[in-house]
Amino acid sequence: MTLEGGMTLDLHTHSVKSDDGRARVRNYCQWIRTRNIPIDGFVLTEHRQFDAESDYADLSREFDLAILKGSEVETEYGHVLVFGVTEALRRAFDFSDIHLPLARVIEACEAHGAVPVPCHPGRPRVGMHAHLESLGIPEGVRIVEIYNGGSREGEDSIAQAMADAHGWRGIGGSDAHIVSHIGRCATRFSARLADERELVDALLAGEFQALTNREQP
Amino acid sequence: MSERLDIDAVRSRFLNEVFDEQQFELTAEQIADYACACGELAPRYTKPDHPDFQAPPTFPSSFRPTRRLPEDFPKLPGLGMDAGKAVAPRLPIRPGVRLTARTHLHDVYAKTGRSGRMTFMVTRMEIFDPDEVLLASADTRIVIREKPES
Predict the structure, then answer these.
(1) Can you give the residue range of the structural domain that contains B135?
(2) Which of A1, A194, A85, A102 is nearest to A202 (CA)?
(3) B111 neighbourhood in chain A, CB within 8 Å
(4) Is the ipTM of this complex over 0.85?
(5) Nearest residue in B to A16, CA atom
(6) Do A126 and B110 touch (CB under 8 A)?
């Protein structure tokens, strides 16, 4: 599938708001523009939290980039990106809990109009594939991250094979923690997306395609 | 495997309680030596006779409390390793000023990664001048990587 028009977003990035993030959001913007990184924006998915306080509207205008916000939470199946976080969703479970049941995260996302996406599923311990044999195939997964900018050799192949086997759609995200990693992987959408709500709608509609700028082993 | 740290219990008992306090003064020579060792070239950090002579912003990362963690802190379930430092400078630190450094446990949290569960402890040292004005804070992060079960 090739999607013309629309926009390309890096769906998995971390700023200094994450404990291991070393990139300021302004520096991501500067890097994208000065290095002509082929993305139209990115989603900040800070670890174990939702950054409700930061307002990137001015940066977004200054650099003409979409800057959206999501989260990355931790479950028994590994890490999970959450798009479309609302206040009600934040009350539904403790984002800082590293032992969240995936079923609860999925249920809460469905109840509050958000989209859960297990990320780097081919990664040991914190990827879903590592837990399928012991925990079984989870109900309710529709999309997984098949291209992750931090994947080591073979991990994205595992993710793609798993997605193919189960009929799950795939997204791409860089998992950038430093500025030079942004845009390594991304997701192409068929429409322009103005906010998190439209991102959720596009994900639910399946109108996207995972992209990678990395060489795949 | 060693028993895991009870993070909720540790947070509730130790967080934000000052467990170390020291008073000291910096000399111009100490500041200039540190600046030169860092490769600093700006005269306000390297030349004691500069009218705005002060410690480089990262200098507080070299201050150490007399103890790493609060007294009675539970035994760590593994080897604690340095997981980085962060300094938030607010006002210049100058030589010959009596400084008070107070340290507390600022955060304790866990995360999971490729290598398994890791527990982080963040101690924060706050540096005040004689008028109790906060000049800077320096965070030190310690990580314990728990042995994977498999």
Answers:
(1) 7-25+64-145
(2) A194
(3) 19, 47-48, 74, 98
(4) no
(5) B86
(6) no
| Closest listed residue to residue A171, CA positions, set A146, A137, A135, A197 | A146
Q: B110 has which bridge partners?
A: B119
Burial tier of A53 (Cβ tally within 10 Å: 0-12, 13-18, 19+): exposed
Dmax over Cα atoms in chain A, in whole Å? 48
Residue type, A118: P
B133 falls within a domain: yes
State the Cα–Cα distance between residues B39 and A39, nearest whole angstrom: 37
The nearest CA of chain B is from the CA of A57 a distance in Å of 25
What pTM value is reported for the model?
Answer: 0.89
Instruction: Give the nearest chain A residue to B83 (CA atoms).
Output: A20
Instruction: Record the tokens describing residue A175, joined without a space.
Output: 């998992």
Please tell me if residue A17 touches chain B, with a CB cutoff of 8 Å. no
- The domain over range A7-212 is classified in CATH as 1.20.1050.10: no
Identify whether B114 is part of a domain: yes
Q: Give the residue from chain B lying closest to A127, CA to CA.
A: B114
Residue spans of the domains in chain A: they are: 7-212
CATH (domain of B133): 3.10.129
The reply to whether B44 falls in a domain is: no
Per-residue pLDDT of chain A (217 residues; tens, 9 = 90+): 455 679 999 999 999 999 999 999 999 999 999 999 999 999 999 999 999 999 999 999 999 999 999 999 999 999 999 999 999 999 999 999 999 999 999 999 999 999 999 999 999 999 999 999 999 999 999 999 999 999 999 999 999 999 999 999 999 999 999 999 999 999 999 999 999 999 999 999 999 999 998 876 5
Query: In chain A, which residues have their Cβ closer than 8 Å to the Cβ of B117?
Result: 98
Q: Which residue of A has its CA nearest to B115?
A: A125
Nearest by CB: B114 against A74, A96, A126: A126
